[in-house]
Amino acid sequence: MKTALITGITGQDGSYLADFLVEKNYKVYGLIRRSSTENLWRLHHLHDKIELIFGDLLDHHSLITAIQECEPDEVYNLAAQSFVPTSWNQPVLTGEFTALGVTRVLEAIRVVNPEIRFYQASSSEMFGKVLEIPQKEDTPFYPRSPYGVAKAFGHFLTVNYRESYGMHASSGILFNHESPRRGLEFVTRKISNGVARIKCGLQDKLHLGNLDARRDWGFAGDYVRAQWMMLQRDQPDDYVIATGETHSVEEFVARAFTRAGLNWQDHVVIDQAFIRPAEVDLLVGDPTKAEKELGWKPEVTFEELVDCMVDADLEKVQHEIETGETQPQMKMRS
Ligand code: NAP
Ligand code: F7E
Q1: How many domains does the chain have?
Q2: Distance between CA atoms of 220 and 296, rounded to whole angstroms?
Q3: Once rounded to an integer, what is the mean pLDDT over residues 35-43?
Q4: What residues make up the domain containing 203?
Q5: Helices (H) and strands (E) in the chain — how many of each?
Q6: Per 3-state DSSP, what percentage of the chain is helix, strand, and coil (rounded to 5)?
Q7: Same domain, 75 and 96
Q8: 7 lines ligand 1 (CB under 6 A)
Q9: Do 168 and 275 lie in a common domain?
Q10: Scanning 37, 192, 265, 299, which has the fewest C-beta atoms within 10 Å of its C-beta?
Q11: pTM score, two decimals?
Q12: Are 211 and 222 contained in the same domain?
């Protein structure tokens, strides 16, 4: 039985990766930071199948202790401040979590046991103002946010630890991936949740920013499979994980409203509050290397992804109405 430690296990990817590794018969540990309110909703179904251990990417000692206690064969570093707009409001903290946090995890592994295999959650946001279409592993980076800059640091540090110390450290350059477990602040879930609330009469308008931005959207469940595949290779390396298709936010909006039998033009309001100081206009990845070397292919199409997110939110909102559990929607300005 192999053992894995997942940082960021409470997030979208952490929960799907935990599902996947439990299914593969791994002993799974998840690193969580102390919070005054419970945030384990994505993990409830795994309550008797995984173990949680306290630690924080800001606290080097806690990472060393966690790795000593779990004795993992593989560490998946998914923890980060991952919301791009927050990275302009909290650039220093974003650097601490998303950039220096990677150094702390890699150093902890190097000190405790450099044989542990390491996965770093790199991002297509590193390509930013893209210098090539589609983006590949060797496309130069031009990040457009403090988040993208921090991810570029984490990416190159992973490459550097591989080259400096011979560690089995791989970096997945993952393009946007979504699911019904996506955080409500990201545009896809904001749309699917908004559509469901509008359909159920809880709100009438959905405030969005730039509808022209284009993204290469895949399903999170497909993408965590690629993370695991990278660590099963004899040689560590970096891989672009993407579908190879790009769609605009407007296309996502149109499909989501149509799925619920609504006309998006009746409900969507363009709100300057959601326009970013610098935008990433177009992302589309070339996953050829992952297909050839890992045998990885996405299974869920764009249309299936939108439909499943809308259906899941419709079911959730209807359930909340039936049980009287509806919460007021808090106003968030980014
Ligand atoms: P997410 O839902 O925002 O989850 C982020 C996780 O990081 C949460 O579990 C969070 O814990 C944890 N975290 C944040 N700061 C921490 C700290 N100081 N110490 C310990 N844990 C901390 O992100 P995701 O969508 O699952 O993405 C997973 C990773 O992939 C992230 O690194 C993200 O940047 C990267 N990525 C995501 C995508 C995508 O499209 N989803 C694409 C490329 C790369 P709390 O619950 O306590 O906040
Ligand atoms: O924005 C536009 C926005 O916040 C997508 C993270 O997982 O993927 C994610 O980063 C696009 C942008 O994701 C709204 O301007 C319009 O162009 O869903 P998002 P993101 O910034 O692409 C990458 C790969 C990561 O690594 C990140 O961790 O949608 N957009 N209107 C909006 N975006 C939001 N959030 N809210 C809007 O109202």
Answers
A1: 2
A2: 13
A3: 95
A4: 182-216+245-282+300-323
A5: 11, 13
A6: 45, 15, 40
A7: yes
A8: yes
A9: no
A10: 37
A11: 0.98
A12: no
